[in-house]
């Protein structure tokens, strides 16, 4: 399998750090607002990428973080007159609502910055002891870029060029304009943690180096994110990680292209952001996923309602074909007996996705198979109907995370209902025993993850 590695700037063989396993860290959202379609692109891509790696036999660990302390979160908390923690909690809940509507699988770990502050402080202390970090007069602690000779390797720029050509956060307290904050001293009224350098909070870049190494180890397989993060975020992450451990950090770097509105980069400052949930009110999740996956992950995408409506037509044709196949067999399509055709189509899938995750070729083949399925329905060719139905549903669709069967949806809903029934029965017993503190604990903690419990005259209900 080959992937494009940003660090080496070429297609490379994907050779795992540990045979049979792939560990991936994907930069996640800063939780001060709802997910927009730009946030959704890497989620859709790497959900499918993980599914494919699992399909071909790898054990995959995929981590995506929540940045829940940041200037934007603090500003939002001030606007709403709320503790900063409440802003983060709210938008993490909204993240999960959007992920559910998108029908994306949760990743293996979703760490929050605020739960790793002790580890971040220890990490910075080690960088300081090794001579890579210094405390400035304003109380901030900076990484000294001049001490790290490999700075610029990921973004393929020289330090001298970066000083001149890249806009960075300039401070009179830095030794070098490229030095970046590891620890930021707290201003009056801002949240803080106690540290050897005084009251403050983590800088942005340090959190990902710490959480990735704590969960995946000092060296893991793939670091991923949007290509707008290559500099300075990922460059800084890599610098501090290599300086601290002396090990490779991420072996490979994968970056997806941006989403553009009328060929302009999507940006909150430009006021041209499309929130994911607004799009999901207008379009099925499969439409958004197929739209994203029908373009190669590394190229920028132009998006418009007109383009999405065009995609919707083709996606609906596939769904209609699948539904007609189910009706043809009175609800359940029998499993096909012809395995050679299966093997041929599976080889096409593996070949395409092993070539730098070429999802457009696989999406195109889904539409071809759907057209063949329609022809088979018209001619009542039962074996071809069964073959193409199962290839679309159980191979191509399963790997890309699209065209989920009604049975799968029902199964997921059934499992949730069964789980909630157990929880509510436990809570009822606690209330009968007058253990109200424990009963309220269950109710309050379910509320934190977006599940509301109401005690009514007809019994306890949840939503």
TrEMBL record:
<keyword id="KW-0547">Nucleotide-binding</keyword>
<dbReference type="GO" id="GO:0006423">
    <property type="term" value="P:cysteinyl-tRNA aminoacylation"/>
</dbReference>
<dbReference type="InterPro" id="IPR009080">
    <property type="entry name" value="tRNAsynth_Ia_anticodon-bd"/>
</dbReference>
<keyword id="KW-0479">Metal-binding</keyword>
<feature type="binding site">
    <location>
        <position position="268"/>
    </location>
    <ligand>
        <name>ATP</name>
    </ligand>
</feature>
<dbReference type="InterPro" id="IPR015803">
    <property type="entry name" value="Cys-tRNA-ligase"/>
</dbReference>
<dbReference type="InterPro" id="IPR014729">
    <property type="entry name" value="Rossmann-like_a/b/a_fold"/>
</dbReference>
<feature type="domain" description="Cysteinyl-tRNA synthetase class Ia DALR">
    <location>
        <begin position="353"/>
        <end position="404"/>
    </location>
</feature>
<feature type="short sequence motif" description="'HIGH' region">
    <location>
        <begin position="29"/>
        <end position="39"/>
    </location>
</feature>
<keyword id="KW-0963">Cytoplasm</keyword>
<dbReference type="GO" id="GO:0004817">
    <property type="term" value="F:cysteine-tRNA ligase activity"/>
</dbReference>
<protein>
    <recommendedName>
        <fullName>Cysteine--tRNA ligase</fullName>
        <ecNumber>6.1.1.16</ecNumber>
    </recommendedName>
</protein>
<feature type="binding site">
    <location>
        <position position="233"/>
    </location>
    <ligand>
        <name>Zn(2+)</name>
    </ligand>
</feature>
<dbReference type="GO" id="GO:0008270">
    <property type="term" value="F:zinc ion binding"/>
</dbReference>
<dbReference type="GO" id="GO:0005829">
    <property type="term" value="C:cytosol"/>
</dbReference>
<feature type="binding site">
    <location>
        <position position="237"/>
    </location>
    <ligand>
        <name>Zn(2+)</name>
    </ligand>
</feature>
<keyword id="KW-0862">Zinc</keyword>
<keyword id="KW-0436">Ligase</keyword>
<dbReference type="GO" id="GO:0005524">
    <property type="term" value="F:ATP binding"/>
</dbReference>
<feature type="short sequence motif" description="'KMSKS' region">
    <location>
        <begin position="265"/>
        <end position="269"/>
    </location>
</feature>
<dbReference type="InterPro" id="IPR015273">
    <property type="entry name" value="Cys-tRNA-synt_Ia_DALR"/>
</dbReference>
<dbReference type="Pfam" id="PF01406">
    <property type="entry name" value="tRNA-synt_1e"/>
</dbReference>
<keyword id="KW-0067">ATP-binding</keyword>
<feature type="domain" description="tRNA synthetases class I catalytic">
    <location>
        <begin position="16"/>
        <end position="310"/>
    </location>
</feature>
<comment type="similarity">
    <text>Belongs to the class-I aminoacyl-tRNA synthetase family.</text>
</comment>
<feature type="binding site">
    <location>
        <position position="27"/>
    </location>
    <ligand>
        <name>Zn(2+)</name>
    </ligand>
</feature>
<feature type="binding site">
    <location>
        <position position="208"/>
    </location>
    <ligand>
        <name>Zn(2+)</name>
    </ligand>
</feature>
<dbReference type="Pfam" id="PF09190">
    <property type="entry name" value="DALR_2"/>
</dbReference>
<comment type="subunit">
    <text>Monomer.</text>
</comment>
<dbReference type="InterPro" id="IPR032678">
    <property type="entry name" value="tRNA-synt_1_cat_dom"/>
</dbReference>
<dbReference type="InterPro" id="IPR024909">
    <property type="entry name" value="Cys-tRNA/MSH_ligase"/>
</dbReference>
<keyword id="KW-0648">Protein biosynthesis</keyword>
<keyword id="KW-0030">Aminoacyl-tRNA synthetase</keyword>
């Amino acid at each position: 399998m080959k992937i494009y590695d940003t660090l080496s700037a070429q297609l490379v063989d994907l050779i795992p750090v540990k045979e049979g396993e792939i560990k991936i860290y994907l930069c996640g959202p800063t939780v001060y607002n709802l997910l927009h379609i730009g946030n959704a692109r890497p989620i859709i891509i790497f959900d499918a990428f993980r599914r494919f790696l699992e399909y071909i036999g790898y054990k995959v660990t995929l981590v995506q973080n929540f940045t829940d302390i940041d200037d934007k979160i603090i500003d939002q908390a001030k606007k709403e007159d709320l503790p900063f923690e409440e802003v983060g909690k709210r938008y993490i809940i909204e993240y999960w609502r959007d992920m559910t509507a998108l029908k994306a699988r949760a990743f293996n770990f979703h760490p929050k910055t605020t739960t790793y502050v002790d580890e971040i402080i220890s990490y910075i202390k080690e960088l300081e002891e090794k001579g890579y970090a210094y405390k400035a007069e304003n109380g901030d602690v900076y990484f000294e870029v001049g001490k790290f000779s490999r700075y610029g390797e990921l973004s393929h720029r020289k330090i001298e060029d970066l000083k001149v050509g890249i806009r960075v956060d300039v401070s009179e307290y830095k030794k070098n304009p490229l030095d970046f904050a590891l620890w930021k001293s707290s201003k009056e009224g801002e949240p803080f943690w106690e540290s050897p350098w005084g009251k403050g909070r983590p800088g942005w870049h340090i959190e990902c180096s710490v959480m990735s190494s704590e969960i995946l180890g000092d060296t893991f397989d793939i670091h991923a994110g949007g290509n707008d993060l290559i500099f300075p975020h990922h460059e800084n992450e890599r610098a501090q990680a290599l300086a601290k451990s002396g090990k490779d950090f991420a072996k490979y770097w994968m970056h997806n292209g941006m989403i553009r509105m009328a060929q302009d980069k999507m940006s909150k400052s430009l006021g041209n952001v499309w929130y994911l949930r607004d799009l999901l009110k207008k379009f099925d999740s499969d439409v958004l996923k197929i739209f994203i996956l029908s373009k190669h992950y590394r190229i920028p995408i132009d998006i418009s309602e007109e383009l999405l409506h065009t995609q919707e037509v083709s996606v609906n044709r596939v769904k209609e074909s699948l539904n007609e196949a189910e009706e043809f067999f009175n609800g359940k399509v029998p499993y096909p007996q012809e395995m050679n055709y299966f093997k041929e189509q599976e080889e096409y899938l593996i070949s395409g996705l092993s070539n730098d995750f070429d999802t457009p070729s696989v999406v195109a083949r889904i539409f071809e198979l759907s057209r063949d399925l329609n022809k088979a329905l018209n001619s009542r060719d039962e074996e071809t109907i069964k073959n193409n139905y199962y290839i679309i549903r159980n191979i191509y669709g399963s790997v890309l995370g699209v065209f989920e069967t009604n049975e799968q949806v029902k199964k997921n809903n059934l499992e949730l209902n069964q789980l909630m029934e157990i929880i509510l029965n436990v809570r009822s017993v606690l209330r009968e025993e007058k253990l109200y503190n424990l009963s309220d604990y269950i109710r309050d903690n379910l509320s934190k993850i977006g599940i509301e419990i109401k005690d009514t005259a007809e019994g306890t209900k949840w939503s």
